[in-house]
């Protein structure tokens, strides 16, 4: 050992051999906190909560800004899913500007949404064989 190393060890014994020293309580607590913060399970849970928080925030904003009462606003939003849902929540048929009216549910563009859906279902004969959907008969097709 050189004189410089001996002098350094005498002046700063804590720097001499850090591997032999036990970590302090503060260092242990910092390490536990760091391990919890960087836990893979915690990170996955935080990332999974983002869509849930976004959806609940959007729903809350819609209910507060809707011109309808909260229950009616939720039924109006549910009617957006289609005419079957609009009939089940009691908002079909509906006129333009009324609760339950969505332009995508107004197939004949007469200003009344979900008026023709039950009539078409009643006219269609029931068959025992499952019908195959024709190609290109998707509900939503880009123009």
Overview of the structural elements:
This protein has helices at residues 3-11, 13-16, 25-37, 40-65, 70-78, 83-88, 117-123; strands at residues 94-95, 112-113. The protein is an all-alpha fold. Among the domains are: 33-65; 70-120, no CATH class. The chain has a two-stranded antiparallel ribbon. The relative contact order is 0.06. Residues 14-33, 123-143 are annotated as: Disordered. It holds the Pfam family Excalibur. This is Excalibur calcium-binding domain-containing protein.
List the topology elements.
Elements: H1 3-11, H2 13-16, H3 25-37, H4 40-65, H5 70-78, H6 83-88, E1 94-95, E2 112-113, H7 117-123
Antiparallel strand pairs: 1-2
